[in-house]
Write a structure and sequence with these properties.
Pfam families: Flavin_Reduct (PF01613). The chain is 12% helix and 46% strand. The chain is built from three helices and twelve strands, in the order E-E-E-E-E-H-E-H-H-E-E-E-E-E-E.
Length: 151
């Protein structure tokens, strides 16, 4: 899978089960009517169940200049969740999930379905709100390293 180039995102949630954010690349658009996103999360990580319990997530697409944020939310540096969130500027739209103010785009979603496939949760979210950032090069992950779109 390391040979599959993908955009880099931070998926976040907040609600009764707690706040969480992780870096992901296994994401795709499922439908445009209604706007629906698919995200895959490793279910072997004990805290990823918070997304399903909260029933909401925000998918924040990162630009090339946000590599350090991606690394922090992937667990590098061993930062606690609250310390990871202190690295960016966050607000909320409709669901209460944290939205990165300067992301290329943020999709605020309510979970409409989940499946377990092998080691991952496959989570489908209906987009309830959208935040568009300034145009910039997208952060891409390929061959276990970061690149920009067009490299």
């Amino acid at each position: 899978m390391s040979h599959f180039a993908e955009a880099v995102h931070i998926i976040t949630t907040d609600g009764p089960a707690g706040r969480r954010g992780v870096t992901v690349s296994a994401v795709c658009s499922v439908s445009d009517n209604p706007a629906t996103m698919l995200v895959c999360l490793n279910r072997e990580h004990e805290l990823n169940h918070l997304f399903i319990e909260n029933q909401v997530f925000a998918l924040n697409t990162l630009s090339l200049g946000q590599q350090a944020l991606s690394e922090a939310f992937s667990g590098r540096g061993d930062l606690a969740q609250q310390d990871r969130f202190s690295l960016g500027h966050w607000h909320t739209l409709q669901t209460g999930a944290p939205v990165l103010v300067d992301a290329l785009a943020s999709f605020d979603c309510r979970i409409v379905a989940t499946h377990e496939v092998a080691t991952h949760y496959v989570i489908y979210g209906k987009v309830t709100a959208l935040n568009m950032g300034d145009p910039a090069k997208s952060l891409i992950y390929l061959n276990r390293s970061y690149h920009s779109a067009g490299d």
